[in-house]
């Protein structure tokens, strides 16, 4: 098969198997582009059943990507579970680098590498899925002159990923799956500059190299943005706020990367876990005070009983906060007890 003039990169998650099947059946074996797909899969799963399913519905040659395999037109490469799929020049790379937006494989990592390698000859596609993977990736593609498509949220089984992309990036096409094949064929049939001749922003080159594990140190990350007083939720290292593009993002020097939305959700999960631990410790303190109050006498016993009543109030407020996902209820005077309830 010939070397592709274009690459089509696709990111999808929940609901993706059906969406991918519907899309690839529209693409002919003579497609002058390589198709690279990130479908979020469980780390211990196998990608082979999905490859077989796609092969049954498409004229494209469908394969599970292999490290340093040469890109070929008319071929679909699926990211293996728990591995990033990247593009470097005319090869695919399969790596186990740090997670991006909590995912490995990550659509953002694939999209960025393809944008750096192929510039305006990249078409990025975000299909059905939850959360935000692919949003920053489409921004990378647009900054390098490529084209961004998203599945119409009304057509998506899970609209979160397409909606996130549309909120943050000026996408070129919003289409139902059944209209995407024709548009993709038209886009990859348009003559464009040879890969390598277009301007590629330096920050994206640095980030692509970090993902390839060529670089990845504090000095390199300092070139990308400014350090902020936030720690990486995956490794505990310092985070840098990146100053480029339309999507607010954060990165640590070991390679973990987050959009602001993904980082906010990650911190919410960590905070909730911490509060459950706090609730468990307060329950244990309540049980201990109960035993102490029942075994003492006089003023000392009264003092423990008072502490017990106080901790019961705090336990009830914290439990209600966790179960309802909201602030503690107002006091009779209209004020709210927040931090004081946790002391």
Give an overview of the whole structure:
Keywords: Chemotaxis, Hydrolase. The active site is at 13, 40, 133. InterPro entries: CheB_C (IPR035909), Chemotax_prot-Glu_Me-esterase (IPR011247), Sig_transdc_resp-reg_Me-estase (IPR000673). Residues 2-191 form the CheB-type methylesterase domain. With 343 residues, the protein is of the alpha/beta class. It has helices at residues 16-24, 48-56, 107-118, 135-143, 160-168, 177-188, 202-211, 218-222, 260-295, 298-324; strands spanning 6-12, 33-39, 61-64, 69-70, 75-78, 84-88, 91-95, 122-126, 147-151, 173-175, 225-231, 238-242, 249-251, 257-259. The protein folds into three domains: 6-188, Rossmann fold (3-Layer(aba) Sandwich); 214-262, no CATH class; 268-342, no CATH class. The protein has a seven-stranded parallel sheet with strand order 3-5-2-1-8-9-10, sandwiched between helices. The protein has a four-stranded antiparallel sheet with strand order 11-12-13-14. Strands 4-7-6 form a three-stranded antiparallel sheet. It is elongated, with a radius of gyration of 25 Å. The protein starts with 5 loop residues before the first strand and ends in a 19-residue tail after the last helix.
Index terms:
4-stranded antiparallel sheet, Chemotax_prot-Glu_Me-esterase, elongated, 14 strands, 343 residues, Sig_transdc_resp-reg_Me-estase, chemotaxis, hydrolase, EC 3.1.1.61, 3 domains, 10 helices, alpha/beta, Rossmann fold, disordered C terminus, single chain
């Amino acid at each position: 098969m010939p070397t592709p003039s274009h690459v089509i990169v696709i990111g999808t998650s929940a609901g993706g198997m059906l969406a991918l099947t519907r899309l690839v059946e529209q693409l002919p074996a003579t497609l002058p582009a390589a198709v690279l797909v990130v479908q979020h899969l469980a780390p211990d799963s196998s990608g082979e059943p999905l490859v077989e399913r796609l092969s049954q519905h498409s004229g494209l040659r469908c394969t599970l990507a292999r490290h340093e395999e040469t890109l070929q037109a008319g071929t679909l490469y699926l990211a293996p579970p728990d591995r990033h799929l990247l593009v470097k020049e005319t090869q695919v790379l399969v790596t186990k680098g740090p997670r991006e937006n909590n995912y490995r494989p990550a659509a953002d990592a694939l999209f960025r590498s393809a944008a750096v390698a192929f510039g305006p000859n990249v078409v990025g596609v975000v299909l059905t899925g939850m959360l935000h993977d692919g949003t920053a990736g489409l921004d990378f593609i647009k900054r390098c002159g490529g084209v961004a498509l998203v599945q119409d949220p009304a057509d998506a089984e899970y609209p979160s990923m397409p909606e996130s992309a549309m909120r943050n990036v000026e996408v070129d096409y919003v289409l139902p799956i059944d209209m995407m094949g024709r548009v993709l064929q038209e886009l990859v049939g348009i003559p464009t500059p040879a890969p390598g001749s277009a301007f590629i922003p330096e920050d994206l080159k640095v980030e692509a190299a970090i993902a390839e594990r060529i670089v990845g140190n504090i000095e390199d990350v300092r070139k990308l943005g400014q350090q902020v007083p936030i720690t990486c939720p995956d490794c505990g290292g310092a985070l840098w706020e990146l100053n480029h593009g339309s999507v607010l993002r954060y990165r640590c020097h070991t390679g973990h990367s987050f959009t602001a939305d993904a980082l906010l959700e990650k911190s919410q999960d960590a905070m909730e876990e911490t509060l459950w631990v706090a609730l468990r410790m307060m329950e244990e303190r309540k049980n201990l005070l109960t035993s102490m109050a029942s075994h003492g006498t006089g003023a000392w016993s009264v003092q423990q009983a008072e502490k017990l009543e106080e901790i019961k109030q705090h336990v009830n407020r914290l439990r209600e906060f966790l179960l309802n996902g909201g602030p503690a209820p107002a006091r009779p005077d209209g004020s709210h007890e927040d931090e004081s309830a946790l002391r």
